[in-house]
Design a protein that fits this description.
The protein has 136 residues and is α+β, with helices and mostly antiparallel strands. It has four helices and four strands; from the N terminus they run ααβαβββα.
């Protein structure tokens, strides 16, 4: 069997088909890349929104903590003390409104001073509320 040389039109047509196939593959890769970029941007935006919300949302006990401070209540402790840190943790983000002072010479930590009286150890919100009239 003898091979006949292809006509230039056939060659041209084959080249055109190869080029179209290559362009189609490039287009698919580009669309896939664009889709990946869009999904990544959306996920990033959701994360940024969530972090922003958590960072700027008010604390659960902001009003209670502000009321304690307005009444002149002071919490003394030390930052290395697990009981002091436990009391701080009870307030969560709202602790920033508590009038807190580091005081190294305490017998027991934390110590709350309310109306000139000292209350040693971690205090429950119920107890702090009863002593001050502040609602939690």
């Amino acid at each position: 069997m003898q091979h006949l040389p292809k006509h230039s039109k056939e060659i041209e047509e084959e080249n055109k088909q190869r080029e179209e196939k290559l362009n189609l593959e490039k287009k698919k890769k580009s669309q896939k890349k664009n889709k990946t970029i869009i999904i990544s941007v959306v996920v990033l935006l959701v994360l940024v929104a969530a972090i922003t919300y958590v960072s700027f949302a008010p604390g659960k006990y902001d009003g209670f903590a502000k009321c304690l401070t307005e009444k002149g209540v002071v919490m003394y402790g030390e930052d290395w003390c697990e009981n002091t840190n436990g009391q701080k943790a009870m307030f969560g983000k709202s602790f920033k409104y508590i009038n807190y002072e580091v005081k190294p010479d305490l017998r027991i930590r934390p110590t709350w001073v309310i109306d000139g009286k000292e209350y040693e150890r971690v205090q429950s919100f119920q107890r702090l509320s009863a002593l001050t009239g502040c609602k939690y």
